[in-house]
Amino acid sequence: MSATPERRALVVGVRPEKREEYLELHRAVWPGVEAKMTECGIRNYSIFLFGDTLFAYYEYVGDDHDADMERIAADPVLQEWWTHTDPCQVRIAEERAEGALWQPIDEIWHLA
User: What's the confidence (pLDDT) of residue 54?
Assistant: First the structure.
């Protein structure tokens, strides 16, 4: 585990007609989703809503972010979770992560 967490932020839109469905899913996130994310070094994960924009922030404490993201992507529970959440989302930012709905955004300042 890394001593200093990496801060990560992402943005995506929520489809207005699917907003309540998305919020309902996140009122009771499946335990398997949270367990796999924790196992893969994700900490302090938050999703914020502003209008129809979702902003996510998390800290990564592992040693190989790409490998851990691949482990998350390969997990059957997360794959099933995404069949429910992905239809609620729409890309709103320039595509920086090819094929991904959630797009990474750059940190420009941090107060420690």
Answer: 97
> Amino acid identity, residue 98?
E
Quick one: which H or E segment has residue 55? Answer: strand 53-60
**Structural domains counted in the chain:** 1
- Rounded to a whole number of angstroms, the distance between the first and last alpha carbons of the chain is 20
- Report the chain's C-alpha Rg in angstroms: 14
Residue 53 maps to which CATH number? 3.30.70.1090
- How far apart CA 48 and CA 41 sit, in angstroms, is 20
Predicted TM-score (pTM) of this structure:
0.90
Phi-psi region of 108 (alpha: psi -120 to 50; beta: other; left: phi over 0): alpha
Provide the domain limits for residue 99: 6-104
